[in-house]
Amino acid sequence: MELQVYVDGKWYPKSEAKVSVFDHGLLYGDGVFEGIRAYNNLIFKLKEHLDRLYETAHTIMLEIPMSKEEMTKAVVETLQTNGLSNAYIRLVVTRGTGDLGLDPRKCKRATVIIITDKIVLYPDELYKNGLEIITVPTVRNLPEALNPQLKTLNYLNNIMAKIEATNAGYQEAIMLNFQGYVAECTGDNIFLVKKGELATPPAYLGALKGITRNAIIEIASAQKLSFKERILTRHDLFNAEEVFLTGTAAEIIPAVKIDGRVIASGKPGQTTLRLMKAFHQLTKSDGVRYKA
Ligand SMILES: Cc1ncc(COP(=O)(O)O)c(C=O)c1O
Q1: Does the beta carbon of 45 lie inside 6 Å of ligand 1?
Q2: Is the pLDDT of residue 1 over 90?
């Protein structure tokens, strides 16, 4: 059976799931989204993802036409319709159908889309041996222009960075903020380990408050691993003992070379490996359960 996609309360085969060409999500990137994972019939941190989705929608004054409970039910039903125990879930809420002007008030009702599918971001080999990444010229959006803490459909800032990385032959990019401090990657947060301490840039310097980032912070606290949110420069990354990236799609992936500099031994570090293991353990217990 073809994959079924939820659009505004109904399920359509993937080839027939559509939105209007007048949808402001398409015309202007006006909308919000989440990327979520289900592991063995458990939707990992669904509550946290929905909280972020509804907060972003609130800030851009987009009314999501269903409650969080109704959204949870729709996500579960979409997984069940597709018989998926393990999945990547893309939840999209666009401003809806309007006219050719910007004015969001012309869009009478937001469009809700739920896609459940599989995702493989990087080959297994890179989780074992680590990624090589580079810093790119495009800086992260200014918080008072388009706040990086908003997970909106407006992703061109990140896409520009991704293009610069892939043009140079790399799969992922480090984005600095407008002051030259490390912000995050195109779709992942970044951490380093130095002298037994874990560190990541504070979100206000230009990073999304990643759900995986928060999970790692929780795990560090449970493991009594010292942790700080602090300003990081490229110099800090180059001279770290370990660097890794976190995100729902990527999960946790070590970075072993940055801008041509080998990080420590050039191999994934012990703390990274320990956190990867603990993270996979957490995905077995923290979330919303459903029957396949
Ligand atoms: C720009 C950006 N940073 C970080 C992340 C990681 O966030 P999370 O762990 O919630 O997936 C994402 C995920 O989509 C992202 O788009």
Answers
A1: no
A2: no
In this structure, the residue with its CA closest to atom 8 of ligand 1 is: 210
Q: Residue type at 174?
A: I
**Ligand 1 atom with minimal separation from the 184 CA:** 3
Placement of tokens 């999960």 in the chain: 251
Tens digit of pLDDT for each residue in 98-108?
999 999 999 99
Name the phi and psi angles at 18, rounded to 5: -140, 160
Total Cβ atoms within 10 A of residue 41: 17
C-beta 247 within 6 A of ligand 1: yes
Catalytic residue among 45, 151, 228, 291: 151
- Ligand 1 centre and the CA of 185: distance in Å? 9
Respond yes or no: is residue 151 known to be catalytic: yes
E-assigned strand segments in the chain: 4-7, 10-13, 31-39, 42-44, 87-94, 111-117, 131-135, 173-176, 182-185, 189-194, 197-200, 227-229, 242-247, 251-258, 261-262, 287-289
Start-to-end CA distance of the chain, whole Å, equals: 16
pTM of the prediction? 0.97
Strand partners, 253: 245
User: What per-residue confidence (pLDDT) applies to 121?
Assistant: 85
Contact 277, 216 (CB under 8 A): no
159-175 mean pLDDT: 98
Residue 149 Cα to ligand 1 midpoint, Å, equals 9
Q: What is the mean pLDDT of residues 9-14?
A: 98
